[in-house]
Amino acid sequence: MSVFRRVRDITAANLNERLEQSQDPVRLIDQFLATTRDDIVEAEKLVQQSTAHMRQLKQQVDQAESMKNKREEQALLALKAGEDHLAKLALQEKIIYEEKLEQYSELLDTTKRSLIDLESQLNDLKMEYQTVYNKRQYYAARMETLRLQQRMNQRMDGYGSGQDVPKMFNRLEDRISDWELEAQSLRDLRRMGQQYLDQASETVSGILEKEMARLKQKLNNSGKE
Length: 225
Prior knowledge:
Keywords: Coiled coil. By secondary structure, the chain is an all-alpha fold. 93% of the residues lie in helices and 0% in strands. The chain has helices spanning 2-7, 12-21, 25-80, 84-159, 164-224.
């Protein structure tokens, strides 16, 4: 397992430091998770292989112990029967199986210790993976929040802030007031024009009346002559 940790590009020890320097923490965490996931898969294979090897060693130990006991019983039977030669042969094989038992027992104990250590480190890797994965979810949510905030800020920049709304209506109010003043001025001008026409018409009528009176007076004067 220590071999796995040495060849990893990103480890838990330097992940935090690299996160502080990274502009894309989610991508960096994904790289870490991918490497850790590969380590977990390889470690699980080693656990399976070690477990299978331990079973084989256990079979050898059991077989050696069984044969040792069997040869000892055979030696006892041979001695009871007065067959010293057969007893010695049985004891010789017993010694061979005792040596085999000792050797395979040592191998079995070593494999058990290695397997326990391997399983412990595998559990550590899984815990490490789960912890970083949870952090990944948190950072991904933060990055998504930041992305949405940036989009909202861009949209608000395009439309302006709410503080400009009163100014917009003030400008509209000014324009409408200008239009109303223009309309009022036009009405006043029309009214003044009509009054002028009325006054002009009265003046012309007065002149006409005076002219008619003058002509009538002239005719009267002509008739008297």
